[in-house]
Specification:
Layout lengths: L5 H5 L7 H15 L8 H17 L2 H10 L3 H4 L11 H9 L7 H10 L11 H7 L25 E7 L1 H6 L1 E7 L2 E7 L8 E4 L15 E7 L6 E3 L2 E9 H6 L1 E7 L2 E7 L8 E4 L5 E2 L2 E5 L2 E8 L6 H15 L1
Helix pairs in contact: 2-3, 6-7, 7-8
């Protein structure tokens, strides 16, 4: 039986970091996922192969054991001292905690069955022989004590979901598709950018009838043309004509709750910020509580003045000089 190079299966080097291995696995798993390749036996085989590779080198401890034995695994599995100086008895004792490998079949049987073991998990003959899932390679442990193979939860998957500020303010229900399945999701009031929601059982399939992994969904708040959100507060610029700025008056302001009228105090300067309490975002999990809306005055200078208007401004200037 040939040695299976799990690094080559995932297309990574032996010096790859755990993050690089995880990224490579997710890319290939998404490519060959059964939901995207219905009825394609080749894709199904590739999906199982990359899954098997990830189960081994995607875990730091299991990867270390795999790397330590390497391509000479077939010689080591015979037990005892090999020509290369590898003392299998010590290796057994090191990982099983027993003397002379007494717990050997239990230790490595668990290791193999934790991946699903046997044909039920869909793993290769090499895997079975290497980890003792169904063959006699490392002790021939076909199953866990009690006659049952351990079920293994599927891999979690991650995705981003763009949401509008209005949906985050009012709450909404959306339907999106990922991995060939449609998912209905409720966006709660006050949801925020970067928030991660866990959708149980919406990730990759489990092994040996184990539960599916979870979908970790990160909300991505879309940029709004009018408001800027910081925590639960909203910020906006309010264009203001020079006459209302000088004399004061009433002005319509658009909020996420609708239009309201606010009072502009006389002699309002450019850049002044007005605080409108309770008109910001609802606090997540506390719908009755809101942040504030901060309105920054953006003074508009008159343009295209008529000769008469210009003359009036000049008169005003002269009055201010007295």
């Amino acid at each position: 039986m040939d040695y299976k190079d799990y690094y080559k299966v995932l297309g990574v080097s032996k010096s790859a970091t755990q993050d690089e291995i995880k990224k490579a696995f997710r890319k290939l798993a998404m490519k060959y996922h059964p939901d995207k390749n219905s009825g394609d036996k080749t894709a199904e085989a590739k999906f199982k192969e990359v899954n098997e590779a990830n189960e081994v080198i995607g875990d730091a401890e299991k990867r270390r054991k795999y790397d330590e034995l390497g391509s000479n695994w077939n010689a080591y599995q015979q037990g005892g001292q090999t020509g290369g100086g590898f003392d299998w008895g010590k290796y057994q004792q090191q990982y099983s905690g027993g003397q002379g490998g007494q717990n050997y079949s239990t230790n490595f049987g668990d290791f193999g069955s934790s991946f699903g073991g046997g044909g039920g998990g869909g793993f290769s003959d090499f895997f079975e022989a290497f980890f003792g899932g169904a063959g006699s390679g490392f002790g021939g442990a076909k199953q866990r004590p009690g006659g049952r193979r351990q079920q293994l939860k599927g891999e979690d998957t991650q995705a981003e979901l763009p949401i509008s500020l209005e949906d985050a303010f009012n709450g909404a229900e959306t339907i999106f598709e990922i991995g060939g399945q449609k998912i209905r999701l409720k966006i709660k009031k006050g949801s925020y950018d970067g928030q991660t929601l866990k959708l149980a059982g919406k990730g990759y399939p489990g092994h040996n009838n184990g539960p599916n992994g979870d979908l970790l969904l990160t909300l991505k708040l879309q940029k709004h043309p009018l408001y800027n959100r910081i925590d639960d507060d909203l910020y906006m610029d309010l264009p203001l004509d020079i006459f209302t700025a000088v004399l004061g008056g009433k002005l319509d302001v658009t909020t996420l709750k609708g239009k309201i009228k606010i009072t502009i105090p006389p002699e309002t300067s450019n850049g002044k910020t007005l605080r409108l309490g309770g008109l910001g975002m609802p606090k997540y999990g506390k719908d009755s509580q809101h942040g504030d809306l901060f309105v920054k005055i953006d003074l508009q200078t008159p343009k295209d003045l008529t000769p008469e208007e210009k003359k009036l401004f000049e008169q005003l200037r002269d009055l201010r000089k007295k």
